[in-house]
Amino acid sequence: MPDAEEAVAVCYVVKLDDKNLGNLGAFSSCDGLGCEFVMEQREEGGNNGMVWQLPTRIKYSNIKLSRPVTEASSQITKWFAGMAGGIERKTATIEARTLDGTVIASWSLEGVVPVRWSGPQLSPDSPKVATETLELAHHGFLSPAKKG
């Protein structure tokens, strides 16, 4: 029997801090949530027993979200079209939700920009589900708000 604390997500809902765009809808997969420290190695003269590992900067990977095409797909093309006049970074939240809509985890991202959108491959020869993929870049995670 699964533990009540396990995170079994069914969908990932993406929300932007933009009144005109707001909710980008639910995605069936989310890949790339993560970060890493870039390490610099330094050798110390006269100390042959070790090499210093120094963290230099933190690097955030791009996030790829995929789903079948829905009515919410127009929000993504609207976002890209709005960037033609200049790039404006947004704050976004990705919520992992269960089938009944319960939020089991969320990540707030700062400095979000869309990197790439791939629409469906439409072909009468292949009756597959029309899917789309959205790739986002960001400047890091926002600290969760303190409760109380």
UniProtKB/TrEMBL annotation:
Database matches in InterPro entries: CHP02241, Phage_T4_Gp19
Pfam families: Phage_T4_gp19
Domain of life: Bacteria
GO molecular function, one term: structural molecule activity
Designated name of the protein: Phage tail protein
Organism, scientific name: Amycolatopsis japonica
Taxonomic lineage from the root: Bacteria, Bacillati, Actinomycetota, Actinomycetes, Pseudonocardiales
